[in-house]
Design goal:
The chain is built from 5 helices and 7 strands. It is α/β, with parallel strands linked by helices. It has one domain: Glutaredoxin. It has a 5-stranded mixed β-sheet, covered by helices on one side. The chain has a two-stranded antiparallel sheet with strand order 1-2.
């Protein structure tokens, strides 16, 4: 627990413009993402054009983040063929830790890395995990879900159904 608090403080210090800012909220235009995949290849929002995006900011040292991943996997497997893309963006300082986590757990949804913390700053992330639901036209469709939730897959199903009427 102390380690998680310490890393959270370090993350907040590194993300100084986020400390007192609220994360993006409903109807905000989503800023461009500048992240990399596990092979170091750059990725951006245009790579997911036309899809409903679930964007989750997380870290390997964040227990609430990790506890949500099996639920995200279940959600993704059930809804990936309905135009929904799940993207988990790690804010870890080292890509190797993220790669190790991905290899160990073998999740099938997209996992990306925000090495420079530029994307998390642009989204004004101040707490982990923080999850956004983004419309195909690039707008946040609901207020962010912060802090880890039980049965997050069921919550996402309800929100997607209410917001997009596709499930």
């Amino acid at each position: 627990m102390k380690l998680c608090v310490l890393f959270s403080l370090i993350f907040l210090i590194l993300s100084t413009n986020c400390i007192f800012a609220e994360p993006l909220k409903k109807d905000d235009k989503v800023p461009e993402i500048k992240v990399q995949d596990m092979d170091g290849n750059p990725k951006s929002l245009s790579d997911f054009k036309g899809k409903i995006l679930i964007i989750d900011f997380w870290a390997t040292w964040c227990n609430p983040c990790i506890k949500e991943f099996p639920h995200f996997e279940k959600f993704y497997k059930n809804y990936k063929d309905k135009g929904i893309e799940f993207i988990a963006i790690s804010v870890d300082n080292k890509l190797d830790k993220v790669k190790s986590f991905v290899k160990k757990n073998n999740y099938s949804f997209t996992i990306l890395h925000d090495l420079a913390h530029e994307t998390s700053k642009n989204f004004k992330i101040g707490k982990l995990p923080t999850l956004f639901i983004v419309s195909p036209d690039g707008y946040v469709k609901d207020d962010p879900i912060e802090g880890g939730k039980r049965k997050i897959d069921k919550l996402l199903e309800e929100k997607i159904k209410d917001l997009f009427d596709i499930l």
